[in-house]
TrEMBL record:
Annotated residues for binding of Mg(2+) 1: N87, D103, D107
Pfam families per the UniProt record, alphabetical: DUF402
Positions of the DUF402 domain: 18-156
Function: Has nucleoside phosphatase activity towards nucleoside triphosphates and nucleoside diphosphates.
Coiled-coil segments on the chain, per record: none
SUPFAM superfamilies hit by this protein: FomD-like
Lyase in keyword set: no
Organism: Priestia veravalensis
Family the entry assigns: Belongs to the Ntdp family.
E.C. no: 3.6.1.15, 3.6.1.6
Name of the molecule in the record: Nucleoside triphosphate/diphosphate phosphatase
Length: 177
């Protein structure tokens, strides 16, 4: 599996546990690419929902994916600070088509002051039953929710103070190249 080169543009595909395509981000610039870590940046990219509806992201974002963690993090750069949207998901994979992961409904929204809210617990429970999430997956997901909360509190990984600014600067160099 060839990993994309830094500076390349890729798509991001999220799926549901039943294998159905959930959402596609049309263009994300690869800022770092290894077998275990992918950092990307995008701004005003087209997003296509499973029902065909499209929308365009409103602000620049830095995306963090890891092959060992059951979450991914999107840092959105807004006028009043950085907001994070964290998807509880499978670790990412990549093929020639796109970076891919399974979205498991639970999300954590983190505000510029680093307070956070766990979202979509009802949606998770509904889909867990409808799609028969295995007990082992349920345990892993809840463990990684707690792991993610620890990272937020400790300002670790993508929540580190300079992380988004550093990678956004890199993103801008590719945009203006």
């Amino acid at each position: 599996m060839g990993f994309p080169m830094e500076g390349e543009t890729i798509q991001i595909h999220s799926y549901k546990h039943d294998g159905k395509l959930h959402r596609v981000w049309d263009q994300t610039t690869v800022l770092k690419s290894t077998s275990s870590l992918m950092i990307g940046g995008n701004d005003r990219t087209v997003v296509t929902e499973s029902d065909g509806r499209t929308w365009i992201t409103r602000e620049p974002a830095i995306c963090y994916f890891h092959s060992q963690y059951w979450f991914n993090v999107i840092g959105m750069i807004r006028e009043d600070g950085i907001y994070y949207y964290c998807n509880i998901s499978s670790p990412f994979t990549h093929d020639q088509e796109a970076l891919k992961y399974i979205d498991y409904d639970l999300d954590i929204k983190v505000y510029p002051d680093m307070t956070y809210t766990l979202l979509d617990e009802d949606e998770y429970e509904k889909h867990r039953q409808e799609m028969n999430y295995p007990e082992a997956v349920d345990r892993i997901l809840h463990t990684h929710v707690e792991h993610l909360k620890t990272w937020i509190r400790q300002r670790k990984g993508p929540f580190a103070p300079e992380f988004i600014d550093t990678w956004y600067e890199r993103f801008l160099t590719y945009r203006h190249a």
